[in-house]
Amino acid sequence: MLAAMPDSNAPAPSTILLVEDDLAIAETIAYPLRAEGYAVEHHLLGGGVAGRVRAGGIDLVLLDVGLPDIGGFEVCRQLRAFSALPVVFLTARSEEIDRVLCLELGADDYIAKPFSPRELVARVRARLRRHQAAQEGAAGDGATVRHGRFEHDPPARRIRFDGASLDLTRYEYALLAELLRRPGAILSRAQLLDRAWEDAPDSGERTVDTHVKTLRAKLRRVDADADPIRTHRGIGYSLDAG
Q1: Domain boundary among 83, 105, 138
Q2: What is the Cα–Cα distance from 10 to 71, expressed in whole angstroms?
Q3: Would you say 42 and 32 are in contact if contact means Cβ atoms under 8 Å apart?
Q4: pLDDT confidence bin for 11, thresholds 50/70/90
């Protein structure tokens, strides 16, 4: 295990949990992060990651896809069952299906090996900044925000409709959360793509339509007559929170 080396100029550095079974690769990842003032805690296996995150003190997880005990995808599933902590995959797989799977599982980003130290630090910094901003916004507004029939808990990435928790994929959640930020406002497909699919730049506008369809189906499981997502032909979508 690599020992964390916090920057003496930063009294409370963000702590990165690095899950990588190759020691040489782990060292090349840890070095630039520590040079930027982050504390790095290294684990060789994925089995204990969920328990470590539950214990607290971790700000972001850097997760290798190929681990010798349980795969990174399974670790991510475990984390997303209880935590909205930023998860960034490290993967040698460049196929689109693997990149899509990383994001659909709830990861916040992925970095394909080999990568530059500068890119690594920039991605980590951006994810930490975004997560902190979301937490601060939630703290300012209260953990759960009510919008008519909807209840939105941003820290937990959970949305309820008529009191029932919706079982949403990563992008279904991002899409509905974006509509909930401005109930009644018409958002174009391009706007929704830019805000909800910012980590998947290759997605097209038909992707929005597909996810709206699946969202409507899940809302109707709660109320068969419900159709709060309004279609504005040729423009986009809006949400009638009710």
Answers
A1: 138
A2: 34
A3: no
A4: very low
Instruction: Extract the tokens encoding 176.
Output: 């509905």
For residue 7, tell me if it sits in a domain. no
Domain boundary among 73, 104, 138: 138
The length of the chain is: 242
Whether the per-residue pLDDT at 140 is higher than 60: the answer is: no
Amino acid occupying residue 232:
H
Query: In this structure, what DSSP letter does residue 133 have?
Result: H
Q: What residues make up the domain containing 199?
A: 143-239
Q: How many domains does the chain have?
A: 2
For residue 29, pLDDT over 90 is answered with: yes
Is residue 111 located within the same domain as residue 154? no
* 170-181 vs 96-104: helix crossing angle, rounded to 10: 60
The residue written with tokens 């980003």 in the block is 109
The answer to whether 46 touches 62, Cβ cutoff 8 Å, is no
The per-residue pLDDT of the chain, averaged, comes to: 82
Same domain, 100 and 152: no
Per-residue pLDDT tens for 55-99? 888 889 999 988 999 988 899 888 888 777 888 988 876 555 566
